[in-house]
Amino acid sequence: MTDAVLEIRGLNVDYGLGDDAVHAIRDVDLTLHRGEVLGLAGESGSGKSTLAYGLTRLLPPPGVITGGEVLYHPDGGDPVDVLRMDHATLRKFRWAETAIVFQGAMNSLNPVHRISTQLTDVIKAHDPRSTSASRLARARELLHLVGISADRLDSYPHQLSGGMRQRVMIGMALALEPKVVIMDEPTTALDVVVQRQILRQLVELRERLGFSVVFITHDLSLLVEFSDRIAIMYGGRIVEEAASADLYRDPLHPYSHGLLNSFPALRGPKRELTGIPGSPPDLRAMPAGCAFHPRCPHAMERCGVEVPVLGVPGDRPGPADRTVACWLHPVQDNGL
Amino acid sequence: MSYLLKRIAFYLFTAWAAITINFFIPRVIPGDPVQALITRSRGQMTSEAVQSLYVLFGLDKDASLVEQYVDYLGQLLRGDLGLSFAHFPSPVTQVLGDGLPWTLGLVGITTVLGFLIGTALGTGIGWRRGSWADALIPVTTFVSSIPYFWLGLIAIALLTGPDSFFPASGAYDNGLVPNPDLEFIGSVVRHGILPAFTILISSMAGWILSMRNMMVTVASEDYVTVAHAKGLSDRRVMVSYAARNALLPNVSGFALSLGFIVGGTLLVEIVFSYPGLGLQLYQAVGAKDYPLMQGIFLIITLSVLLANFLADVAYLALDPRTRREG
Question: What is the pairing mode between strands A237-243 and A229-234?
C-alpha cells in the first residue's frame, strides 16, 4: 500500500512487567490509509482503547509497549517510527500530525480554563511565533467549524453541554490540521440524537479537510454506517478486517457475526437479535488457541490448540485487504 | 456578585454572634480580678483599697447584664476594649498591639512560607510519582503528625544552652531596645529561627502530603491526558493543568490556617516564651484578666472569619465552577 498514512506493525502492549504482565495487545498489524475512516470495534476489554493510547504513546502506567512499530508517513517524506521518537520530537509530532478525541467528553476539558485558552495553548505550543490575535482568530474559526458560536470562547467548560464540549474537543483536534484523528468512543457519553449530529458533522469535515480517522467504538452499527473499513478486535488481537460493506454483508469470523447480530439493522427486514453468549476473556488467563473458542458456536478441536493467523481467507479469494483469523476460513495457501 | 454579598452578610451575622458569646463567657466564669489581687497581696489590703480597685475596674456599678452588653457593644465600636487587669493601667488595645506584631511576624510568615514551599514540593513529588522522591512521603506523614510544641521542646533541649547560638526564649535580647537597627534586627532573627523552623517543618509536611496526593489524583484526569496529547510542554501540563486543579482543595485549607495564625500556636509561644498573643492569652487566663482574654478571643474570632471570607474569595477567583451566573 503506497497511500498508507499510519502503519502499525506487530504492536504489543502489556500492563505490568515480568511474569504477572497482562498482554492487552498482541501482535497487532493495522494500516490506516490516507483519507479513510477506519473503524475499530470490539467489546470492553478487547484492547481498542489500549491500542489508541499505545500508538500515541499516552499509555498510563503500568502500561508498557513491549514491541512493534508505528510508522507515520508524512506527506512526501520518509516514514518515522512514533515509538522511537525522542521526547522533543514526540511533542512536536503530537497533535500536529495525530490528534485524539477521547472517550470522556465531560472530562476532556480543563475545568479552570476558558475554552479560548485551551484552544489557543496548543497552537502556541506548536508555533511559538504566532501572535495572540492570530491564535484567537483560529480558535474562532475552529468553533465555527464545529458549529458553535464564537461568543462561547469566553465560556468555561461547565457552562457547555456535553455535546458542545465534545464538539469543542473535535474542533481542538483539528486546530493544527492533523493528517490523522484518533477518536476513542467520542460519542459514548452522548445521547443518540447528538451522537448522530456530531458524526454527520465529522464526516463532512473529513470530506472537506481530508484527514484520516481511526474510529474506536463498541457500537458496530455506527461503524457500518460511517466507516470505510472495519477491524474487529477480540482479546487483544485483530480477528477480522474488511471493507465495512463486506463485513456487514458477509462476516467471516463468528465473533463479527455475533457482534452484528447484537443490534437491530437500520434498514431491511427484521431479524432476531442473538448477541454472544458468555463474557469477554480474562486477559490474565487467556484460553489456549483462539481466544474466542470457548464462546464460539463453531469451535473445533483445532481452535483450542492453535492460534489462527490473520490472513486472506482461502475460501474468499477477494481483495487483499480482507483478512480474518479463524480456522473456519484458513488462510489461503500462496505457495509460501 | 450577589453570592459574595450573601457571604458578607453571613459573616457579619457570625461576627455578631461571636461577639455576643465573647461577652457572656467571662461573666459566667467564677471569681473576679479584685479577689485575685487580694489573694496575691495575701490580704495586706485595706477595705478602702479594695473598694477603690472595684471602682477602677468598673466593677462597682450594679448595672444589669443588658446594660453591660449595650455598653460593651458601644465600646467595641469605638475600638475600646477596656483596661487590662494584669497590665493595669494599660488599655487592652495597647497590650494587644504589643503582642500582635510578634505573632503575625513569626507565625504569619512561617504559615505562608510553609504553604508555598510545601505545595511546590508536593507538586513536584506528585508529578514524578514513583521516583525516589516518593520515599519522602512516609517521612512527611510522620513529621506532620508531630505537634509543633513537642518539636519545639526537642529543639530547645538539643540546640540551646549557655554557649549556643540559639537563644531558648524571648523575641530579642533583653538588653536591647526595639528600634530598627541592625543589631536589634539580627537579634530578632536569631531568636526567631528555632520557633520558625519548628512551625515550618511540621506545617510544611502536611501541605506536601495533601498536594502530592491531589496531584496523583489529578494526573489521571482526562484533561491531563489531553494536555499531554496536545504536545504541550511538560511544565505547562504540570503547572497549568495538573497543579492548577490540584491546588483547589489546598487553598481553602490554607485560608483556614491563616485564621489560626493568631490562636493556633499558643503552645509554641509558651514553649519559646515568645511574646506574642498566644503567650499573652496564656498569662491572661492565669491572671483572670477578662478584658485581655476577651480582646484576644475577639481577634481570633475575627481573624478566622476573615480567613473564611478570603477562602471564599480565593475559590471564586480560582474555580470558575463556583461562580454562579445571574
Answer: antiparallel
